[in-house]
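In the previous chapter we treated chains in isolation. Here, by contrast, the input contains two separate entities that must be folded as one system, with a combined length of 750 residues.
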Amino acid sequence: MLNTLKNRFEQGYRTCDYPKEKPAVFSRYRGKPIIQKDVSNDMVKACANACPQDAIDVDSNKIDMGRCVFCGTCERISNGKFVRFSGDFEISTFRKEHLLTDGDLPALAEHSKQHFKKLFGRSLQLRQVSAGGCNACEADLNVLATPFFDLARFGINFVASPRHADGIVVTGPVSRNMKTALLKTYDAIADPKVVIAVGSCAITGGPFLGSPEITQGLDTILPVDLFIPGCPPHPLTNLHALLTFFK
Amino acid sequence: MTTAFLEILNGEKLSREKIPHLSFHNFQENALDIVKNGGKIVQYFGFQDEDSAMKLMAVLRTDKLLVACCDAKDVYPSLSKTCEPFHMFEREIAEQFGIRPEDHPWLKMVRYHANYRNKPDVFGNDYKEDIPGNYEYYKVEGDEIHEVAVGPVHAGVIEPGHFRFNCIGERVLHLEIQLGYQHRAVENLFYTVQAKRLPILAENIAGDTTIGHSLCMAQAVEALTSVTPDKGAQIIRTIALELERLANHIGDLGALSGDVAFLPPANYFGRLRGDFLNLSLLLCGNRFGKGLVRPGGVCFSLDDDIRATLGERLKELKPQMGHVFELLFSASTVRARFEYCGIVSTDDAEKLGLVGPAGRASGIGYDVRREFSTEYYGKIDIPENKKTSCDVYARARIRYDEILQSINIIQSLIKKPVQTQCVNDSNYNLSASSFVVTLNEAWRGEVSHVMLTDKEGKILRYKVKDPSFHNWMGLAMSLRDTGISDFPLNNKSFNLSYCGFDL
């Protein structure tokens, strides 16, 4: 007993103050990409060619965060002169096309559907379905339950049954073998319901683009309300998206 | 023992013509001889040669690595029939290439996909239909038997898979685990995509084993391009692999605490795991180490300020870890649940070929870092970690030991400045007609990749093996005669990868 109490005191209070205060993230973290406009075409092309995900659009000088895995190749090649990954983790969007960005994202809070806020603002219960992918997105959703993030203090929980859920959080590129299970889970949730795509796999197929075993984007089979990019998205990116969109 | 198999080294480039090409009979006899005498299977897979001839290749290990190949017929006498360790590999070959191992003791699909040669399906499936779950599970018969079916969608935020329990009362007589829901055809992507995507693919085979798989891929490419990473890169890669081990082992101990309803350590370990994930982020900008390892070295250096922060954080976290360990392992209620639960005997573990902490908890001391060391491990003294109680407690204690060792390893590596030339552009001009096998001890155990190239230096076959491929059967065995309510506890004590298995 004494040991339990001693540990409790040592651990102290660890929950972050977000959204009141943004927690510090180590400087090498690659968040929102910022595009520098005045850069030579050759540089843009070099970055586009080197990008393993072909996420750079040469015509519009923009980067597609839905395909991007935030590996930092373009930043390294251009020495930060074309793309610079900032420490900003607030990068989610309500439309897929907004993920193609030069670093200027529409404010998520202003575009949240008002009836969602009314319905789910005080209590949001989510069912997570992992459909392909590498389990990193799931891991960084799971940590939202740890004391540092403590998602439950906002009235948001991950629940065991779709019957208890207001919406579905999908990770992974929706493998052929998971498609039916995913759609059945979606159907089992009562209307009105929300669909959230987490990670580049769910948004576009991500690292598995081109595989015949996957779906190239969750939005091709379900109506997606919220896109959370990253490979995987930082837990704070997830937290920001959920709080801003629903609270 | 003389063998027709050729002795090779971990990560050694070999011209394909040097690999002994045996008759099937000879191949089978030699392979059985090695494995029945205690050898283990690192890789056993099929591939189509340039003239589309079907071949089989095996990489076995004793205290050395051994390789040989042979021509494959569409039907052949199963090796599993007399030698259990081959059983998963033969099922995989049957699924991938439509080759039937005659008299296989339990021939069923591994990942539910059509074979690559348009041959009739060995399992009689039509893949235009929804196949997963459309399968006659193993049934125990009797009036008092009941079945419990779980998945593919589970109650938590976890990966999909199907678990079928045959129980009498609370007691599990048999657990069948059927996976394949995460199948993304990763192996095939390795030879259809542009070379620049190889590191991204490797990082996403299993996100929690990003570094383990990335190292296998990078070492394979480095072998076939004759590139050697500098000493600094080797040290950074070693640190990254140990950070990965730390975060996962700590997370597992937290999950184990949660499953015996001891919530304080569950929460503390959960938080501490996050601290270690953040140390990977400190190093390379990603909590899972994505973006760090590339053929030729690493993309991020260990500058002195990063090194100092890493040292400070470890110094702060180490005693905290110690106190939470004490809290967990000194609780009699925890010991009562962990001890004698989910025993996998050393004999069973040998037959199943268990690797990593699961194998070490069952008395098999094998650790790639000790026996086929890569990167900087040759210069580090890794103790033999082995337990003999073969239960959940052993699997938890192995993690405890390895957590302390990993912290010490990192602390010793960051004492002096580490310098490396960061990789900007990797070389992918692979040697033609070559072979390489790479092994690394990731946190779950032996990860291994094989790369074969054709006459033009293109990848002809890329084979990936996650340790989970060996260990899932271990979980099934641990549940035999165990209460079904102990499934979560046993499951966490193995904590296997679905995506690493499903590929």
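Strands of chain A lie at 33-35, 56-57, 62-64, 83-85, 100-101, 124-130, 156-158, 167-171, 194-198, 226-228. The domain at 109-246 of chain A is CATH 3.40.50.12280 (Rossmann fold). Compare these points with the single-chain example from earlier in the chapter.
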